[in-house]
Amino acid sequence: MPRRPTPAQFVLGVFTVVAATVALLAATGAEGVVEVAVAVGFALALGTLVTVLSVRAAAGRAEPPAAGHGYARQR
Hints:
Elements: H1 7-28, H2 33-61, H3 71-74
Helix pairs in contact: 1-2
């Protein structure tokens, strides 16, 4: 079941999109509509990737311990 990003993860993704867009536009000097659209599209893909990876990383940390190791606590 897919997990939804927390507000902090969503803000991280939005910040990544904005920062990447500003950096790409400043570095490339894009002026045309197509050039700007490509830079914004790349920044959106990067922000989406950052959000997905942060959700997966958080899900990996939230996993319960393996069931086979609980015997030590039962004694």
